[in-house]
Amino acid sequence: MLELQQVSKIFGGQLRAVDQVTMTLTQGVVGLIGHNGAGKTTLMQMIASLTRPSSGAILFQGQDIVKKPEQIRSRLGFLPQDFGVYPNLSALEFMQYFAALKGVRDPARIRHLLELVNLQDHAKRPAASFSGGMRRRLGIAQALLNDPDILIVDEPTAGLDPEERLRFRNLLAELGFKKLVIMSTHIVSDVESIAGQLAIMKNGRLIAFETPDAILQAAHGQVWQANIDAAEFESLRAQVHVLHAQRQGERINVRIAHPHSPCRDASHAEPSLEEALMARRYAALELAA
Asked: From CA 195, how far away is CA 182, in angstroms rounded?
């Protein structure tokens, strides 16, 4: 459906925000992961045809969107990280306004989308009075107005409470059954249970494009757990990469990323996806050293 070929974006002649990214994306949820400044937002803006690559090609159904951006714009839904609403418009009026911009003339479509994001009972409320989670859901509704094949959401759960985050993740997972959903985040737990593929970026480069299961399998045997005293903990954390530490009485439960047993009585632990990614990062740092 979507193919990126050696895509780069250079700002000011020197800064490589995106560097030679190549991948092929199909239906399902793709988690775009990386630290702040890794190039995620710039990459998504190029896919959405909001900015042009400095080099490389982006193909949607075989058509170059740089040369023919209309090929993707009519089939794309986009929710940016900073999604604002018009203070004087209700949620319904907001949707009607965007429907007119997108050439959608079916009022039933608007009602259906408000129900999909669980805002039907708030349709006549001013959108400016919505909570952060409600605004994000309204943003998803407007992004789906044209029934897009590709949905791009940039840091969609930023600032949401746990209940809203769960509701939002479930909605994106459901949409991924029929569409390509590209979800950018630096919160690994947001994509751990819904993404079929993870695209991991660092300093503008795509350093991995794998399934979550493959990442977890690669970390097998690299994560350890132990229950140690405070003095041993102080000594240990100066030598190894501690992923998590929790005090229990006079002792400390630790989880550690290390290729070998890091201390006496350490045992293998099943890593979470976030721990697997951290273990990979630490392994790469050690190899570089």
From this structure: 9
Per-residue pLDDT reduced to its tens digit, 118-169: 899 999 999 999 988 888 889 999 999 999 999 999 988 877 788 888 888 8
Q: What is the pTM of this model?
A: 0.88
The full set of domain ranges for the chain reads: 2-210, 217-288
| Per-residue DSSP letter, 16 | E
Distance CA 204, CA 202 (A): 5
Q: Is residue 207 within 8 Å of residue 201, measured between CB atoms?
A: yes
The sheet that has 55-60: what strands, in order across it? 15-25, 2-11, 55-60, 63-64
What pLDDT sits at residue 77? 94
Whether CATH 3.40.50.300 fits 2-210: yes
Could you say which residues of the chain have pLDDT below 50? 289
Separation between Cα atoms, residue 255 and residue 251, nearest integer Å: 13
Write the CA distances from 241 to 151, 153, 181, 236, 272, integer angstroms.
37, 32, 34, 9, 15
Confidence at residue 285, expressed as pLDDT on a 0 to 100 scale: 59
